[in-house]
Specification:
The chain has 359 residues and is an all-alpha fold. It has helices at residues 2-74, 79-110, 115-135, 145-174, 180-201, 208-233, 238-242, 245-260, 266-291, 313-316, 326-330, 334-358. The longest helix is centred in the first third of the chain and has 73 residues, at 2-74. The protein is flat, with a radius of gyration of 34 Å.
Amino acid sequence: MSQAGEQARNRDHQEAAETADDAAEQLDDVARKLQEAQAEMAQDIMEAMQEALEQTASDAVAMARQQSGLRERMRGASQETMADLRGAESALIQGVRNMADNLSIQSRLAQGDTRDLTGEMGQVLDALDETLAAMGNQGGRTSSPLSSAEQAVERLNRVAMNAMAAAEQAGQAGEGQGSPSEQLEEVAEQQNSLNNQTEQLMPMQLGEEAMGDQLSELAEGQQSIASDLGELADEPGASESLGDLEALAEEARAIAEAFAGGRLEPELLERQDKLFNRLLDAGRTLEKDEESDERESEAPGAFEAGEVLPLTPEALGALRFGPPSAEVLRGLTPSQRQLVLQYFERLNRERRVGGGGGS
């Protein structure tokens, strides 16, 4: 009875372990899908923001041409013609307002900052309102509609250029930063470049002002690296795969503060070199985790000691349920590969035991 009870407990332990494996696999799958959905949503928002900026640039160019055409028609225009032109000018003003509203809505959705563009559009509207007022009061004291119309054209062209520059910047951000290992490699390259600058500056005998400028530049570069590391540390799963990136960011910030305080000592260069090597180590560790197909060893758990059965022809041949191909396995993370291989091991083991018991 004691042996049967022990076997029953072992079966319970094995079933519990299998249930835990299945639950872990499901959690990994949910986390992966959630991360992919978040990345896809962020990409969609960034692309929509880029399209809105490009549309703003295109609309501003078209409106600048329209205003330029209206300005030419204002020259020597009769009062009747000017009245018709005022209608076109009013329509142009409404078009600029619509353009500003559309950009503002898209900016809020994408959490973008378009305050500079919005301010420039406000200046465009001021010039257009002044033009419209001058067109209706040619004999009064208002300025000539020609000069204010020309000013509106210049401001619309400036909006177009700045919107296109912002669209290009959004496009570069939307291209993605690559995998965590690629991002970390880029940060390491930046740190190495900064280390070289420090090493070259060390023996120079510069004046106080020139040395201060160089140290400020080093401080800005080191602070930029600290910010990049902080952002990378905030990404989902970064702490598990890359280690304590926040500690590296803190060290980069401390070095930046030393430079900003006017210090240039051999100790700082040594700390920079150590930081660079730690970045390389973190990158190599992550790359090994991403590319290695080796399975991690595990401590043996409880197992059921059963009767040793004779080998069947099926057991001596190929596995009944073959695992996924190497290409499919390479597309999984190390932990996912392990769970999949364990699943097929259990499947074939149960098949062999079941087949043997029935012969």
